[in-house]
Amino acid sequence: MKPTLYAHRGASYYAPENTMPAFELAFQMQADGIETDVQLTKDQVPVLIHDENVKRTTNSNGYIKDYTYHELCQLDAGSWFSPNYAHTPIPTLEDFLTWAKHKPLYLNIELKNNKVAYHHIEAIVYEYISAYQLTNRTTISTFNTNSVVKLLNYRKNIEIALLTSRRYRYPIHVAKELGASALHLKYKLITPKIVASAYEQNVKLRLYTVNRPAHIIRSIQYGVDGMFTDVPDQAFYYRDLLYNR
Question: Which residues form the GP-PDE domain (predicted)?
Answer without folding.
Answer: 3-239
